[in-house]
Write a structure and sequence with these properties.
The protein has 16 helices and 12 strands. The chain is α/β, with parallel strands linked by helices. The strands form 2 sheets. Strands 5-12-11-6-10-7-9-8 form an 8-stranded mixed beta sheet, with helices on both faces. A 4-stranded antiparallel beta sheet has the order 2-3-1-4, with helices on one face. Strand 11, helix 16 and strand 12 form a beta-alpha-beta unit. Helix 2 runs antiparallel to helix 6 and helix 8 packs across helix 9. The relative contact order is 0.13.
C-alpha cells in the first residue's frame, strides 16, 4: 500500500467550475433567504436615501412659432433655426439673463433655459427647469416676453406666437427616480448576496459523493453507507445502527459487507486497523462497531477497542450496562486485559467478537495513548484475534489518533457526506499520512444526503464540546 500523503496537493488549488457551481446551487437551498433579505434591505435603503435627498426638478415648456416682421415662410424657418442656434450665446452673454432677472425682480435667473428649433418648421420649443414650479413658469413667461427683444440684435425684428403651453409644471419625475433607486439598490443587494454565497461555498465545501473522494484523495473509496434511522425505544438502547441487533436494515448490512470485502483486500495479512474521521459527528464509532460485527460474522476473531476516551461510545452501542473495567484500567495496571475484555454474543451464541470498552475517563490521555503499555496491549491482542480494530478520536481535531497510529497497520477513514469541510479532511489525512500510516480507504457515511440525526450524525460544531455532547 502506498504510504505517501493521500491528498492530491497539486489538485487542491485547482477549481473545478462544474463542481463548484453544483456546490453553490446546493448551498443556495439554505442561503437563499440571506440573498433575498439583502436584496430587500438594499432596495429599501436606496429608496429611503433617494426620498430624503430628492430635489424635485420642475420643467415648464412651450412651443412657439417665429415670424419675421414683413418676412416670408422661408425667412421664418431660417430665423427660427438661427434663434435656436444663437440662443446659447445670447444666454451666456448675460443679456437675456439680466433682462429676465430684472423682469422677475431677482438677483439672477433661478433656473435653466433651453431653446430648440424643430427641423423644417418655424417652430421653437422653449424649456425652463427649476426647483420651484411657480418660479419656473414665471421664467418661461419672461422668456416669451423678452426673448424677441434681445434676439432682434442678432436675427432682426421677430414675433413669437404661443402655440402650446405646459402651464405650471408638476413633479412627474419623483416616482421614476425613487423606483430607479430602489431597483438599483435591489441589484446591489442581490450581487452582494451572490458574492457572499460564493465566499460561503468556497469556505464550506464538503465531500458528498464517492466521485468527490476519488477526485480529491489518492486513496480508494471502500463504499458508501446509506442513511438509516431507528426509533429509540428506551434510554438504555442506543439509537445508532448496530447490525448485530438491527437485522432489518438490509441496505445498510449489504453496504457494510461490500466495504468489509474491499477493506480485507486492502489489508491483506495486516491485523491492526484504525477507524477514525476528521471531526466529531461523522459516525466513525458506529462504522467501527458494524465493521467489527460484519468481520466477526465471517468467522473471524475480532477485538474492538474503544480508544475514544474523551467520548467512549462502544459500550452504549453494544448495550453494556456499565461497571466494566475499561482500556484505561488495563493500561494503568488496575485491571488485567482478560478481565476487561467483554465477549459479544449473537442470538445463536458466541460471535467471535470481543470488546474492550473505554468507559472510564482519564485526564492523562496523551501519556496513555503513547505509552509502551498501549503498544504491549496491542501486541497481546494480535495474538488473540485475526483483526484488532481501534476506534479512535477524530484525527483533524485531536492528537490522540496520531499517537495511536504508531500501533496500527492502516486506517479506514470515515467521511460523513456533506458534513466536514474539506480542509479538515485534508488535515486529518495528512496528520496520519505524515506519521507513515497507510490509509486503506475512505468510507462515505450517509450517501448523497443525511438528516443530521441518524446513526452517529450528531453535530455540535468542529470539536467544540467534544467528549460531552458530540456523537461519533
Amino acid at each position: 500500500m502506498n504510504e505517501s500523503v493521500p491528498v492530491k496537493t497539486d489538485e487542491v488549488e485547482q477549481l473545478d467550475i462544474v463542481s463548484f457551481l453544483f456546490d453553490a446551487l446546493h448551498r443556495l437551498r439554505s442561503f437563499w433567504w440571506i440573498i433575498l433579505l439583502l436584496t430587500v434591505v438594499f432596495a429599501g435603503a436606496f429608496y429611503y436615501r433617494s426620498s430624503v435627498s430628492y430635489v424635485p426638478n420642475y420643467v415648464a415648456e412651450c412651443t412657439v412659432s417665429v415670424e419675421i416682421v414683413n418676412g416670408g415662410t422661408y425667412s421664418n424657418q431660417n430665423t427660427a433655426r438661427q434663434m435656436g442656434v444663437v440662443f446659447p450665446y445670447i444666454l451666456t452673454s448675460g443679456a437675456l439673463s439680466d433682462v429676465i432677472a430684472n423682469d422677475l425682480g431677482t438677483d439672477g435667473v433661478p433656473g435653466s433655459i433651453s431653446v430648440n428649433a424643430i427641423e423644417g418648421t418655424n417652430l421653437l420649443t422653449i424649456s425652463v427647469s427649476g426647483s420651484d414650479p411657480e418660479m419656473t413658469y414665471r421664467i418661461l413667461q419672461s422668456v416669451l416676453k423678452n426673448y424677441p427683444e434681445v434676439a432682434q440684435y442678432v436675427v432682426g425684428q421677430t414675433k413669437l406666437t404661443l402655440i402650446d403651453d405646459s402651464g405650471v409644471p408638476g413633479d412627474s419625475g419623483r416616482e421614476s427616480v425613487l423606483r430607479g433607486s430602489a431597483t438599483k439598490g435591489a441589484v446591489v443587494g442581490f450581487m452582494i448576496g451572490l458574492v457572499l454565497l460564493v465566499l460561503y461555498t468556497v469556505s464550506s465545501r464538503t465531500v458528498r459523493t464517492e466521485e468527490d473522494l476519488r477526485a480529491l484523495f489518492n486513496v480508494p473509496c471502500l463504499g458508501t453507507l446509506p442513511v438509516c434511522k431507528k426509533k429509540k425505544r428506551s434510554r438504555n438502547v442506543s439509537r445508532e445502527i448496530n447490525i448485530l441487533y438491527d437485522t432489518n436494515q438490509g441496505a445498510y448490512i449489504e453496504a457494510m459487507r461490500l466495504i468489509r470485502t474491499r477493506l480485507e483486500r486492502q489489508m491483506g495479512d495486516k491485523q491492526v486497523l484504525m477507524v477514525t474521521s476528521s471531526i466529531p459527528g461523522e459516525g466513525k464509532s458506529t462504522v467501527a462497531a458494524n465493521l467489527a460485527v460484519s468481520m466477526a460474522k465471517k468467522n473471524k476473531r475480532v477485538v474492538l477497542v474503544d480508544c475514544d476516551l474523551r467520548n467512549p461510545t462502544q459500550g452504549k452501542l453494544f448495550n453494556l450496562q456499565g461497571g466494566n473495567a475499561g482500556l484505561v484500567s488495563v493500561l494503568t495496571g488496575k485491571a488485567r486485559l482478560e478481565e476487561a475484555l467483554v465477549e459479544i454474543s449473537d442470538k445463536g451464541g458466541p460471535l467471535g467478537l470481543t470488546l474492550l470498552p473505554g468507559s472510564d475517563k482519564e485526564s492523562r490521555l496523551v501519556e496513555i495513548m503513547g505509552s509502551e503499555a498501549m503498544s504491549q496491549m496491542v501486541e497481546e491482542l494480535k495474538k488473540q484475534a485475526d483483526v484488532v480494530i481501534l476506534d479512535t478520536p477524530p484525527s483533524a481535531m485531536l492528537v490522540d489518533a496520531t499517537l495511536l497510529s504508531r500501533h496500527v497497520d492502516g486506517v479506514a477513514y470515515v467521511v460523513m457526506s456533506d458534513f466536514a469541510k474539506r480542509r479538515f479532511i485534508y488535515k486529518g489525512m495528512e496528520e496520519l499520512s505524515n506519521n507513515g500510516v497507510p490509509i486503506f480507504g475512505c468510507i462515505l457515511n450517509g450517501g448523497k444526503k443525511h438528516s443530521g440525526r441518524g446513526y452517529g450524525y450528531g453535530y455540535y460544531g468542529y470539536g467544540y464540546g467534544y467528549g460531552s455532547k458530540s456523537k461519533s
